[in-house]
């Protein structure tokens, strides 16, 4: 089911998220605590935006486990970023471990990653692909449910006229974080409708995050009436202290809040709080986090 | 454009094909001589059948170059097989180097590999997928033209009632080598028709090999009126001598002919001969090689 | 601390050891049960001899985890061997995951693998290397304690005039299994003496296996007065039944006993028995297993 | 023999060195022009310092070829650095392709990489290791001549009291670029003396670069009386224009000169000039490049 961590705020070193905290994402790659299987060793991926976001985000994907990757450890100490997505993968049985299947997935200025599982994926895949515009149809290079969900998300961007290329002002600057959340929600609604139509009743677990460098949307969602969604936590505030050290390190007045969202809490900091089930986190670096409920069909309840 | 070598005959050690000859496939991975670019370093794959063919073929795929792979070199010395496919890849620009894109591709008892390029692939891909039965539609795990061509080939098998699972007598035993060649030809005909309909005039180069362990079909084909197809050679006979040594090593009376087909000649043996353009090699371990012409639409001319 | 499995007997398919049993070595790569940490995901290695042992053993090493390796799964179904070593690695913290550090290690006709840890390794390494003949000194390509122990073992072979190259009759055929066990014991004695001299009191855990294709020696040993050695089990007999299926598959009268040694029992078969602490298993394909005690300095007690 | 490129100057994006120029290092990984074999596909490595050099340099090593690495391409667009070392490897025959053998090698605040070959390496290796202090003796994790040369270089640092850990002011700040060049020269002198003593007359080709983030030393050197050293070029000045674009991009008055050293010229810029044979480039970001001759024993001629 995977584990992920994301960050939006003043630039921080990647190590502050990935290796320094006592329950860092790298630790979660072999000792995850909030799922029955502690192992997320089927490759990893880090996506991050340059400090001033003048380009597409960098994507560092590897099919080897995160816990033993010297390059990851080394790069994390040197690179700083204001918007980071990091993912350690536990491949669904039968799913390949290869580079094209590593999260986060990127297109233009956007990133998406998932901790979850699209129910009845093999049964809906053909219909899902048929529903896509050519631009989105040509996106998937691998075989994961997540990359197909990403294609739906990009399809929603394209259909709604959202610019896909990164620019100085950020790709989503016209719409902002709420627009990003709406597009993610619309993609999920389409997936759920396909499952309703062609599925075999298997539940979906959909903790999904999208970002454009300036804004982030993350949902905690599932369709199982008897089980909770996968775990998801938010920490935000002026200071974030892993292992006794403050970060972000060079907090300036105008840089906005620091926000960390993670499958499991990275530290013992008491300010971590669980994201409610069936809801969407809407994050903007210049505003406090918002949480919007999602209905049974995956739609945002905005009022 | 890649390079490949295949073998059908009495069991031989893989090293006899892959490392011993002076112009072995491993040498062709960095010093190919019959294409302008000598480099085929984007991963490799070896598919081989067990000496008695009681199972699916083994597939050994790696994304690292063949020339430096110690495991490949070591395994090749120890493993013997009566039917081998080996491929070194030169990825089309823009195409990913990952495990799902390595040849040969396998399904049930069958293998397929290509040295070539499906013209206008991105333009026909959507239509190609639409034309497939669900079984074939669910096959591709990567993004290559070859894997999509393989899906068409499997679609042809399924539609014609050919058993896909390997058995004691071999999957194609009812039909034999000619049946295998017909299915490959039918897949190519479908690709060419799609290109005719949706393509932009880009030429296709289609040296494609399929096997079921007992039989092999390989075509040398292109659609460019001004250029020859990629090079392809056949050697067959009682003995095959790379670097002064005889192989197959333990020739028995009833084991049939040894046949090697390769993008480039492995040795200086004068018996290598070029496969004619626009033709299909039809190989059966108990019969001499046949060569059938193919017409402009990719159909076998059998009469 | 790693996990390993080895086999000596009539040729069997590798899958019979590696993937078919309910607690196969591949399962032990993520769900080991007899060590506190269940994870052995830092690469793997398989070494096996050709059915007739006319060459060096094959070595298939990968730095990715065994549980997701499609090539391993596929090769294991097709390859048969009369002598197999298989190892899944849990790297010591600070130790690199790279190809040169994968077990088993090979030289000429010999293989060696370890589940354990040489105490004070960094402190004795310099003296250990100084003690080697040039042939053994030039052996290590990586940085593990095990590869240095292997260099000591090869040093013992060379100093005792044992032929290193594989031959038709097998490299150790003059000496046999007992000779192999003596050389392994001598290497361990040298390591223990170095630790005694330069170490800092850290305990050693030395479950080590060596093979020449015809014979195998495996010890279960440690130097900690308060802890048992790592777990180690032996199964031998006419038939070995994983998951309800008999193997070796084609038992012939003259092929000798089947012997499996494994860090953890592969099956629920009641004939598995624990190897006693401080002892050496001496295995010959034409004789019943022998177990010899080892004294405090690692010497075999033969009388 | 490998190819390398290094940079010292105002921070630039890595892509400006690695991918944008028409004859970039990535192009040199498959189409090197100034050596007989154009291929440098045995892995690669990038080492770079953070924009303000408050830590050890990052090291990104991969055993796959540089030309197909999507992560490299992506990271290079986003990361900026004032001091970069980049290397594409052509492994000496018989040398392993694995992570521990990738250049540049790092220790504390230092990096070293080589394009060349230590003559008679196997013959001098034992004596070379014997000559090292324990700190340097424990450094090598792989099997290359270059990593052993790096151990000699670190040995020289340690013996001369140079601080190894990176600090705010840079590790070599007391000594500066000339001190760095002296240490490299001393290491080379020791290698050449060992070859003189134990070698078999094989020539050495030693284009070697070392850096501490603030300073760089690079030599172009060989011991063959009949052949030139490997090619090496320097470009420096206010502007450096690959493919029509100026870089460094945001030139400020106080940031010092931009200096690029490369095995082959990255661009058609007429200011590239060949580094003379038997000489050492001494680079400081606040001073013009100096070139010092080296004598037959590898010593700097400073007067």
Essential attributes:
303 residues, homotetramer, six-stranded antiparallel beta sheet, alpha+beta, 7 helices, 13 strands, seven-stranded antiparallel beta sheet, globular
Characterize the structure shown.
4 copies of one chain form a homotetramer. The first copy, chain A, has 303 residues and is an alpha+beta fold. Chain A is built from 7 helices and 13 strands. In chain A, strand 7 and strand 8 form a beta hairpin. The longest helix of chain A has 22 residues. Chains A and D meet through strand 3 and helix 3 of A and strand 3 and helix 3 of D.
Low-confidence stretches of chain A: 168-172, 241-251
* Arithmetic mean of pLDDT of chain A: 90
Largest interface: A-D, 20 and 20 residues
Task: Report the major sheet of chain A.
Answer: 7 strands, antiparallel
Q: What is the alpha-carbon Rg of chain A in Å? A: 18 Å
**SS strand fraction of chain A:** 25-35%
Q: Classify the helix fraction of chain A into a percent range.
A: 10-25%
Count of alpha/pi helices of chain A: 7
End-to-end C-alpha gap of chain A: 32 Å
> Biggest sheet of chain A, strands in spatial order?
3-2-4-1-10-9-11
Task: Report the strand count of chain A.
Answer: 13
Structural class of chain A: alpha+beta
Shape of chain A: globular
Order of helix and strand elements from N to C terminus of chain A: EHHEEHEEEHHHHEEEEEEE
In terms of quaternary structure, what is this?
Answer: homotetramer
